[in-house]
Amino acid sequence: MASLEALARNARALANGEVVPMTAAETEVARQLTICNACRYCEGFCAVFPAMTRRLEFAKADVHYLANLCHNCGACLHACQYAPPHEFMVNVPQAMATVRGQTYADYAWPPALGRLYKTNGLMLSVALALGLALFLVLAVMTRGPIWGAGLGGDFYAIFPHNLLVGLFAPVFGFAVLALGMGVRGFLRQVKPATSGAAASGAAAAEATHDVLRLKYLDGGHGDGCHNTDDEYTLSRRRMHHFTFYGFLLCFAATSVGTLYHYLFGWPAPYDLPSLPKLLGAVGGVSLVIGTVGLWRLNRARHPLHGDAAQKPMDLGFIALLFLVSLSGLLLWWARGSHAMALLLCLHLGAVMALFATLPYGKFAHGVFRSAALLRYAVEKRQPNPIGLGAD
């Protein structure tokens, strides 16, 4: 309830024209951006710096907006003459990452669940997936041995279709609702700070284009960002693309399968070259490649690039995506074998754990960042409020 009370106090303060108090992390971002605004060496690196130059001071809403606009590429840190060990101690990626994690908890819905962002780590994510898988295994074993229960190759002979829908639909629906309510609260706060103008079709198209391309992981010059040292690399962008599009393809496979089932009366499982199978296979392989790559890059990341406290949450999300994709591919390979029922329980447990933690884990950063990019595309089309020319 603490987050709800804090948001209520902030809303009352805004309504009364008062200055909303900032946390130490938010104050630190404002301090660093004030220095950056005087220097402007990094103005061409990403969307953060052109957006920064439209401000002379940085209130709470501005800080939240810019923190989620930041893609944590690290380019500004490696180019900065005021970076540690300089006495100014300017480290924009790290300062932004700390506030970004705070905003996920601040805008979480229901507010009481915001603290889950701090506890949703690697061990919890994997333990939840394995625990749910064990529960499903025990459910199957109440009807007989699990080894060999899937010899017929029919998933619904193990878990009826209506039972799976009854289990997964409410969890997925809640995840979508929670994420939607969270980003709604975020937009309500940052919209007045980003001109207050409504999103046009052109702004929405530009934001969508930037999201789908991961435009700001190219370092501003196309050579990539940084991960372990001063060397430019496109690895983070590529692994994010493998993961992002792999997830979308898997989701598309499930969606097409749902249409097949309810619209055409074609129940799963499906065989090649059916569309659900093609989408799922390509998406699963892409997810495995992307998550393995992101795990390696995350473990090797320079400690000054991000907030170390959020690493368990990051790794937990990566691990869940990997478990979902790998178990799905293994389930395809082992269909009709003695191991099919066991692998089905593992896959369903991983999917359920992913859905359950979706609103309170790393997945939120993509939703909030997309919202920030939309507000940037809107704001840049408005007259510059400080009269220093257009972006």
Shape, per Cα inertia axes = elongated
Computed CA radius of gyration, to the nearest angstrom:
23 Å
Query: What's the count of strands?
Result: 0
List low-confidence stretches.
Answer: 14-19
Q: Domain count, please report it.
A: 2
- Give the percentage of residues in beta strands: under 5%
Measure the end-to-end span: 41 Å
Class of secondary structure makeup:
mainly alpha
Percentage of residues in helical conformation:
55-70%
Q: Biggest sheet, open or closed, and with what strands and sense?
A: none
SSE string: HHHHHHHHHHHHHHH
Helical region count?
15
Please tell me about this protein's structure.
With 391 residues, the chain is mainly α. The chain has 15 helices and no strands. The protein has helices spanning 2-15, 24-39, 48-52, 60-69, 75-79, 92-106, 116-119, 122-141, 161-190, 201-213, 235-264, 275-300, 311-333, 340-357, 363-379. Helix 10 packs across helix 15 (363-379) and helix 11 packs antiparallel against helix 12. The radius of gyration is 23 Å and the shape is elongated. The two termini are 41 Å apart. The relative contact order is 0.15. Mean pLDDT is 88; it is low at 14-19.
What is this structure, in a nutshell?
InterPro entries: Citrate_utilization_prot_B, NarG-like_sf. The protein is an all-alpha fold and 391 residues long.
Features:
391 residues, mainly alpha, 63% helix, 0% strand, elongated
